[in-house]
Amino acid sequence: MNNAPNSFASTRKRLMAAAASLAVIGAVGTGALATGTAPVLADAVRVEAPQVPSFADVVEHVSPAVVSVKVKAKIQPTADDGSDDQDGFDNLPDNPQLRRFFKEFRGFGDQGGQFGMRRFDHRNHGNGQPRPIAQGSGFFISEDGYLVTNNHVVSEGSDFSVVTNDGKELDAKLIGTDPRTDLAVLKVDGGGNKFTYVDFADDSKIRIGDWVVAVGNPFGLGGTVTAGIVSARGRDIGAGPYDDFIQIDASVNRGNSGGPTFNLNGQVIGINTAIFSPSGGSVGIAFDIPASTAKQVVQDLMKSGSVQRGWLGVEIQPVTSDIAESLGLKSDKGALVSSAQDGGPGKKAGIVAGDVITQIDGKDVASPKELARMIGAFAPGKSVDVTVWRNGKDETVKVDLGTLPASDKQASNDDSNKQSAPAAKADTLADLGLTVTKAEKGKGLVVTDVDPDSDAADRGIQPGDVITSINSNDVNTTDDVSKAMTDAAKAGRKAVLMQITRDDSNRFVALPVGKG
User: Fold this and answer.
1) Domain range enclosing 376
2) Which of 33, 80, 92, 353 shows its CA 20 to 30 Å from the CA of 514?
């Protein structure tokens, strides 16, 4: 009973507080509706994550150094007979692999057009005036107007011009070309103006996975930038003896030829020269001439307009594991000499067929390609120490290098040593799966038949081949062959090295001992 008043008072206070709260809420709500103030919303989503590097700074600085290259040629009128003779293959040897390379890597395909070159129909102009035949890319390497592009961009031209990043078109002069590395140098007269130029990077520091930026003139569109990474190093695409391409996945198309690929410091790591493309467009596989190769070649072209390379004067082939076994080599490194050319520096110094070149001036030779690059890097007349593996031991000979002849002068048309059809009685080398007969002219044994299930067939020996030696010993009879096989077995060798002559060229084939 005594608590009743307190309970009533407490209840009354709670009711009054609730009423006051409702009054406040009502006032606030009425005010919001009256004034039109928007309700408070949640913040927009924002993710704090590491940002991908922007290429904008690199592009801003290097773009003025990159140009579009326009090429014209004086075209003589031809009859419009409907034939397609403008594919540029007229002077190529009848070699399916070589032609396939130009179609795939230079961009010939279902849609036509040469990679790095935009071709135009120039038949029936009739006046012999310069007509546009190609467009590519290039970049300045000096403030006085020297610039680099590809040889295949300018090779058919007689008049050249470049279009700078700001749209100015300037006449250019061809300083020199090097078809073996597909490089060319042009010179623009700036009338006293200085050009923005770029420098070559140390490509030995390039790693697979590094970011790169390609700048060029794809499809004649003008300055275009694409980005990607270094996909591979040391690619050999069968373009020539100095193949050592950097592969990138930045988008590269027809018209990018001769354009630069930059690292994030704005230095040129390579020059766009080829793509792999079944369709003619970019599929993410492009190949760059490394900066280290380009830098030396460009310096020579600027100095003399051509490149003079050292020449050893030998034909070489890879050392396979079977060949290494047959010669007693510990590894399949080096370059096997298949023949030493008459009058060449190598033959004069005593290098003979069957030698394996393992070192040049003390530096290891890993492969024929590496040997070609090493010798080509020397100037003609340079004296080098050549280490060869001969008769189971190393020997060193000193060679005074000659001058690498033009490619069209290296082939010989001498038919005097061609082997005539054999007329002697054939003998069988059952262990090797070969049937042979004595050669009528010269030394050796002519292969008349090859067992299709034999190791000889697997290694490409064909009827008509001439066996001239086994393990550096001349063979003229089947007894010579049997003796060489026996000697190899006694020496613990599992294979013998057979020298084969075909179409006036030599090569070596390793055949297992005692197997047919």
Assistant:
1) 310-404
2) 353
